[in-house]
Structure formats: structure tokens, C-alpha cells
Amino acid sequence: MNTFSTRRFFSAPPAAVFAAIQDGERLARWWGPAGFANRFAVFEFRPQGRWIFTMVGPDGREYPNESVFASVVPDRLVVIRHVCAPHFQLTIALEAEGSGTLLRWYQAFDDPAVAAAVREGVPGVLGIHLEGPFLSPTRKGVHNAEKFRQIDSKALELLTSLKNAKTLVTLAPEMTTPDMIGKLTKAGVIVAAGHTNATYDDIITAYQYGLTGFTHLFNAMSPLAAREPGVVGAALSNPDSYCGIIVDARHVHPQTLKLALRCKPHDRFMLVTDGLANVGTNNDSFKLLNATIRIKNGVYVDENGTLAGSALDMRQAVRNAMAHLGVDLYQALIMASAAPARFLGLGHEYGAIVKGFRASFVIADDDLNVRETWIDGVAAI
Questions:
Q1: What is the pTM of this model?
Q2: Interval 250-270: pLDDT, tens
Q3: Three-class SS state of 53
């Protein structure tokens, strides 16, 4: 089922309800989820008229929308075709019921997968991370360079299409333009540098257009050198940027990470697992991009020994941070929770157990074995 429907009764005649839709100024005040605001750029309320506007979330994130009024029947019907991703058709039907109006709302998505995601509302999933395909062939890792591409207008539309969750894109800044990075970040996309051979100056410019993070610091990026600080140098010299780190003693030497921690505040480092599909299972191999990926010494590698990911889970990442980097439990937990929450713009909801935040947390014993997981106040295990 790709269609969702709801209904609501209003103590007003159909003409009054229709007027609240027809008037752009009034519509802007109530359209969308609670807490959102709207800026209408074009509002042509007539058949085949355009409707272009931006929804602004409580956190300031902007959600561009473009639609066409496919049908308008005064006091009875409005059909809206959403012409940017995600594509859907919205039908608003008004029916007199006594002295009031019964409003029926039907939303039909073109893509069954989008409809399923909306319907199921998977708990704990805050958004998506796209690591590619806008990467550098020079620093490709196990990615298939034949699939790499530039960010064109269609890619921009796709990358900015997720409206109710976070979108994080890892890209190589030298493979696109500062202006394109700016378009992504202005649309609410979080941009991180990774799998990149960019220069120090490339990253400094990208900062100015909204780049805020780095994916698996030190791995698959130009290193810090005497005459060229590279991506690593640009990451460590900026106290405000966020750096994901894989603390498995294989991707990066622990001493290298300890040096990094001396360059900027600890709460700007994020523990990441870089885990692949088999983490937490007894399987030691699987297929990825037609290649066999196997676990070896705690990491996943392809047939050539190229690193493909880590066998870490977050519990072990916290343990390793304490054991290898010399941080205490409090600091390690900030790196595992509060820091990534702030990076995603969710620091006002996640990353701490305080009044007003979402009740998403784990209960662990003294050895950090997870005993319970809670997601939005509901016990998961």
C-alpha cells in the first residue's frame, strides 16, 4: 500500500475550510508538522498553478518543496502533485457534515519503498549516510570507482529529498564545487569530507561553504605532510569540525589518534564502528560489490587485503577508546553519543539523559555489557 489517509472534522462549513487553504498567508501559518514555519515563494492557487515554498523546522533546517495544483474544485476538492522528490499526490476532499466539514486526506507515494518507510517508522533510525558515489578515485578504498560521479542537478535533487530525517553525505570536495557544497548545506544536508585527495586549501574553502565533518579521520584521505597539510591537517587545525575515528588499533595506530586528541577538543571526535553487515553474527565473510569480504584480525578486507570496514561494535569502540587513547568513561561516552548528536544537529534531543531529551539510551553493567536498550522511551531489549 502506497497510500495513506486520515480524516478530521471541523466545526465550520466547507467554504470556510476551503478559504483557509486558498489563502496563501493563512495556509503558511498552519501547513506542515507542529513547530514548522513556511516561506512561500510562488503560490498560484488554480488548476496547474505552481506552489514553491520552503518549510523550516524547529532546528532551523530548511526543506524545499515544489508542487503543482493538479485540480481545484471550490469548497470541495484540492489535488496537489508534489513534483520534487519524494514524489506523491495529495488529495484533500471536503464534505459537508451537519453544520461542519469532514476533511479527508489521501497521500499516495510513487515509490513503494518511500511509502513503506513512512508507514513503518523504524525506531532509532535518524536518517541516512551516503558515503559516495561522489568520491576520489585516488582514495577509493574498496569502493568501485566506475560508479563514481559528479553531483549534477538530479543528484542534488535526490540528496536533498529526505524531508523528515537527517541526510549526511561523505564526498571528496575536490570532485565537486564549493557552490555545490553550499547548495547541499543550505538545503539541510550535512556534508563531510572522506575518500578524498583534497589539498589543505580545498578543505579551508569547503569550510566556508558549510563542510563540518570528516569521515574516518586518517583513512582514505590525503595525509598531514611537511609541505602540504592535506585533509588531515585541515581537519585537526579546525577546532569546530567533527572527526569520526575508528578505534580498532588496525585502521589507525592508537598513538596517532592520541596525537589527534591533543589537537582539538575531545567532544569534536566521534567514535564510529565502520561496521559491515556481519558485525554481531557468526559469519566471517559476505559479498560486497561482487567481491568477497572476509574478517581478518578484527577488520574486514577484500581479496587484495584492502580495508573494507571494521568488526567493531560501539560497545567495543568505547572500551578501546578507554584502553588505547587514555580517555575516561565519561569522555568516551561523549565521543560515542553527545558528539555525533551535535554533529547531526540533534544535540538538543540526543546525547544526554536530561529532562526534555529523547529517552534513547542503553543500560550497561560495569564491563559495558549492554543489558537494556531504550529508544524514545520504549524498551527495545
A1: 0.69
A2: 999 999 999 999 999 999 999
A3: strand
